[in-house]
Amino acid sequence: MTIxxxxxxxxxxTVGFGIITNVxxxxxxxxxxxxxxxxxxxxxxxxxxxxxxxxxxLAALTIxxxxxxxxxxxxxxxxxxxxPSLVSLVPGVIIYxxxxxxxxxxxxxxxxxxxxxxxIALAIDIGFAIAESLFKRIYQFVK
Amino acid sequence: MSREYLNHIMYVCGMxxxxxxxxxxxxxxxxxxxxxxGKAIGVDLNxxxxxxxxxxxxxxxxxxxxxxPNVSAFNLQKVDxxxxxxxxxxxHEISFMQLEQQVxxxxxxxxxxxxxxxxFGAGLVSVAPMLLxxxxxxxxxxxxxxxxxxxxxxxxxDKHAVAPYLGAIAGGLVISLLATLLQQMGIANSAANxxxxxxxxxxxxxxxxxxxxxxxxxxxxxxxxRGIDAxxxxxxxxxxAILGSFMVHFLIGVL
Lengths: 143, 255
What we know:
The structure holds two protein chains of two kinds.
Chain A: H1 2-20, H2 25-48, H3 53-74, H4 79-85, H5 92-104, H6 107-142
Chain B: H1 3-22, H2 27-41, E1 45-49, E2 54-58, E3 64-67, H3 76-90, H4 96-108, H5 115-125, H6 137-160, H7 166-184, H8 191-198, H9 205-216, H10 220-254
Antiparallel strand pairs in B: 1-2, 2-3
Helix pairs in contact in B: 1-2, 1-4, 2-3, 3-4, 5-6, 6-7, 6-8, 7-8, 7-10, 9-10
């Protein structure tokens, strides 16, 4: 139930962000599905571990693989799928919280959140990098 | 190949690179697109793109063409259009003349979803999946509407403000003002949850992640510029949010 609700709402969230960032209409559905699957993987991984890196890394890996596949299907740059499907994963709120703490003078919390932001963003980016090189290999092999 | 023709090619490529970068494409995509166009014409074009400047030069001549982009919001539809046009040019489906015309058309055309669609989209983003079982459903419903207002404030601020980042301050202010007010009036359960959820369309999480991705690709200057920009936006939103809650508490103190 938790997973299903998460899937539906992350799909809606991804499509919404796709509309704000002006993704071409033919990409919207694929981006939404990619984002929703990424978030589902995140939820599943998060339930099993309290590690910060692993859920983000696995979700980014999923988005990277599915996104590249979808990009070939709709013949669009893969960034078009990455940008919206990342919206629920990305550490936007944490970076905001960190900067807010800086303004209030709570430097310990601010520093903690800033490092958390960096770690999450790095985990996502490494997931992407690995997914892309994996995908290139698989794609050449299949083709 | 005559010098005028070369200059003309560089001018068209500069326009393409500018549209791509201003609409939110990664720098590597900008550079590779220009490379492709050069290959299709048979000219050795070199392109270096950062967030603040694009340089295009040819190997055979000494002149360099410099474009100063003005990066603002994402408009991925334009990136896709330029990508399609350059792909067709590379496949020799259209001539250079047609490429120039189409690029100019893309530059001038307003490609956008309609405002009601965008408002609905902003509302959808404002219901954050990570808060689904942490915040109450009532709070999430409120976040849907407050997020829309915050997004509108951001767009309004960006359009009318003279200084950059004022839009982000306005967005943060509106969201935190409304959320704190609703909590004080007893309608909302937790202002903090509403603020976090409604800020989702505003916070620069995606640009920050993209900036790290560019740094990993060794586009370090461009990545740093993007990263600092993201931090500035987050800071502006934070200032706006603090101002908003301060205003509510001040008003309640006065009354």
